[in-house]
Amino acid sequence: MNSDANPVATLVWTFGLMSLFAVGGANSAIPEMHRIAVDVHHWMDDKQFADVFAISQLSPGPNVLIVTLIGYSVAGVVGALAATVAMCGPTAVLAYYVSRLLARSRHSRWPAIIQSALVPLSIGLMGASGLILALTSDRSWVAGLITVSAAALAFATRLNPLWMLLAGGALGFAGLI
Amino acid sequence: MPQDSQPAAVPAPDLPLSQPPTPPGLLELFVAFAKMSLAGFGGVLVWARRGIVDQHRWMTAEEFNETFALCHFLPGPNIVNLSVVFGSRFRGVAGGIAAFTGLVGPPAVIAIILAALYARYGEIDVLRRILAGVSCAAVGLLIAVVFKMMMPLVKKREVAGLISMVAVFVAIGVLRLPLQMVLLVAMPLSLGITVFVRRRGKA
């Protein structure tokens, strides 16, 4: 836990700003969340961050839930609420106005150009998320193998991802990691 | 991604296929998005599409793609943006809030309960090991999504795109530079390159 006078205000400011830079969704902002939660504010350590990610993946719903959980671990339910609204609010307002604007100028080619410019950046960000999370959670060769197998299965098959999460949990339960 | 052959979450439509789409009410928006969200392990998009296009027929496939493309190029959580844009299209600001609350509210409650259990029992060795196993697999799923998203760039041989992708990966993942700084440089650069490549392509 950090020693800031008002951790809720820090959460709102941090995630409100991050919201506007999270191109490609919550998952691509994971490196930044890790940097802020672990390195800057010392809200949690590496292991706890990996656990928070695991819990957010185990829960159904949008990826943005990891923000809810970081908020929760910093300042309880109020923190969870504040962080979630801060992460979703600014871009939701932006999305609302942009969609109304575009409804009026439907045949502009700019949306397509901007999108194709942003797609590579968002893939790069998500790749960085994968790397950082792999470094924090894969601490043995079995752990690394689970990550690689889950990646290969999810890439090549249409298996429900929940099965891979359950299999990972079962291997952990068996004490193989 | 969840399979198409999953029976549970898709009730057989007993409505005639020709039924005209009726604009959903606030409660209906909340319930619909809550359902999609609770079904969506590892990604809500598939379920959102199924709910909005196939089940409720609130949008055609084309309208859905256009709306999602818009939400994809805006910053922030895509599916959250989608819920707000979708809800407000039918019921104004209140509709946007209803869809958003449905999408995020119920799963957030579940996640917080799990987190509370973790805070209380997280030190128990068995739970730590299970969670460690789950997080290894979860990282794998994320990596798979990255490769899936990369395939169109590789297939279309978009060299410029692949280079910007690797540059961002190194800057954020390896050098650990702050996100805002990297994007303030990368976004205008990538936009400039895209416009340049398209112009040259036409000439």
Give your account of this protein's structure.
The complex is a heterodimer of chains A (177) and B (203). Chain A contains seven helices and no strands. With 177 residues, chain A is mainly alpha-helical. Chain A has a domain at 7-108. The model of chain A has no long low-confidence stretch (mean pLDDT 86). With 203 residues, chain B is mainly α. Chain B has three domains: 1-121, no CATH class; 122-156; 158-203. In chain B, 75% of the residues lie in helices and 0% in strands. Chain B is built from seven helices and no strands. Chain B has helices at residues 26-39, 45-55, 61-73, 78-121, 125-155, 159-174, 179-202. Chain B is globular, with a radius of gyration of 21 Å. Mean pLDDT of chain B is 82; it is low at 1-20. The chains are: A mainly alpha (177), B mainly alpha (203). At the A-B interface, helix 1, helix 2, helix 3, helix 4 and helix 5 of A face helix 1, helix 3, helix 4, helix 5 and helix 6 of B.
Percent of residues in beta strands of chain B? under 5%
Report the major sheet of chain A.
none
Number of strands of chain B: 0
Number of domains of chain B: 3
What topology does this entry show?
The complex is a heterodimer of chains A (177) and B (203).
Chain A: H1 7-21, H2 30-40, H3 46-58, H4 65-104, H5 110-137, H6 141-156, H7 161-173
Chain B: H1 26-39, H2 45-55, H3 61-73, H4 78-121, H5 125-155, H6 159-174, H7 179-202
Summarize, please.
The complex is a heterodimer of chains A (177) and B (203). Chain A is mainly α. Chain A is built from seven helices and no strands.
What labels describe this entry?
heterodimer, A: 177 residues, mainly alpha, globular, B: 203 residues, 3 domains, 75% helix, disordered N terminus
